[in-house]
Design goal:
- Strand 1 and strand 2 form a beta hairpin.
- The chain is globular, with a radius of gyration of 28 Å.
- The chain is built from ten helices and two strands.
- Helix 1 crosses helix 8 and helix 3 packs across helix 5.
- By secondary structure, the chain is mostly helical.
- The chain is 71% helix and 3% strand.
- Strands 1-2 form a two-stranded antiparallel sheet.
- The mean pLDDT is 81.
């Protein structure tokens, strides 16, 4: 056989092998891989919903409670705290807010632990954003360090009859009143006290936390089943908050301008559009 004949034979054989390989791969993809992948995804969704049904309600209540406390503090210019403080009951308000933050940290940890193995990237994104707002960035305002958040959450978590839940308010009060109370909770309470006594300067940070909590609650309860319509959370308007603080002389002009700058950097106030000069 001449060279041309051998070339034709090799072309035929290689084409058959390659075609068989492609055909086999195609059959495997459509008949085995894709159905298994779709089934796995569907099962992931079922497992997520099953687990979420166990923790969604208390997580929503905890985060919505903290969101309402922050909303009221900013919108009413801390008048609730000041009124209770004048009655000599400031300790109650501070303890209650410290508990709400600690409870929120607990449910962040519970949600992460429960859903971590189920490829729930969207939930993790919202939890991370909330953790970052509590962290507070580089400015010396109210903050809870990331590992502090984890420690607080772990100390607040309980397992009762195999079910994961969070310590109640009375258990929390017993915990922080002990002489050997965890430092993370002692520090948190001190920061909450400072935050209320200087809340005007903390306003932009509080708005950021409130926005993250609103996003988290709406993600967990998109249909609004767990919160009555009149109490469904809406985001504070950062510009209105800062303008009101300046008008009430709670911020100087310089402080208000600086806060607006931070709010624009954090995406809480829209940046003014740049106008191109005519050519």
């Amino acid at each position: 056989m001449d060279l041309r004949t051998w070339s034709s034979i090799l072309t035929f054989l290689s084409g058959g092998v390659l075609g068989g390989f492609i055909g086999g791969a195609t059959k495997f993809f459509w008949e085995k891989y894709l159905p298994d992948r779709v089934t796995w995804r569907r099962q992931q969704q079922v497992d997520r919903e099953k687990l979420m049904s166990q923790v969604r309600g208390p997580a929503i209540r905890a985060m919505h409670g903290l969101e309402r406390r922050i909303y009221g503090t900013v919108d009413e210019q801390a008048s609730g705290y000041q009124s209770i403080k004048q009655e000599g009951q400031a300790e109650y308000y501070i303890n209650a807010t410290t508990f709400q933050i600690a409870e929120c940290c607990a449910w962040i940890e519970i949600l992460r632990d429960k859903m971590g193995a189920l490829d729930y990237a969207e939930l993790e994104t919202h939890l991370s954003e909330l953790s970052q707002t509590l962290l507070g960035g580089y400015r010396p305002h109210f903050h809870v360090f990331l590992l502090e958040q984890r420690e607080i959450g772990e100390r607040m978590v309980l397992i009762i009859n195999g079910e994961v839940c969070c310590k109640g308010y009375s258990e929390f009060l017993d915990l922080i009143s002990r002489q050997d109370a965890p430092l993370c909770l002692t520090h948190l309470k001190a920061r909450v006290t400072t935050m209320f006594d200087n809340w005007g300067l903390e306003a932009e940070k509080l708005v950021r936390i409130q926005h993250a909590l609103v996003d988290m609650v709406k993600f967990l309860d998109p249909a609004g089943r767990w919160i009555i319509e009149s109490r469904r959370p809406e985001k504070l308007d950062a510009k209105q908050v800062i303008d009101k603080l300046q008008k009430s002389n709670l911020l100087s002009v310089q402080e208000a301008d600086e806060m607006r700058k931070h709010a624009r950097e954090d995406g809480l106030i829209a940046r003014a559009p740049r106008h191109r000069s005519p050519a």
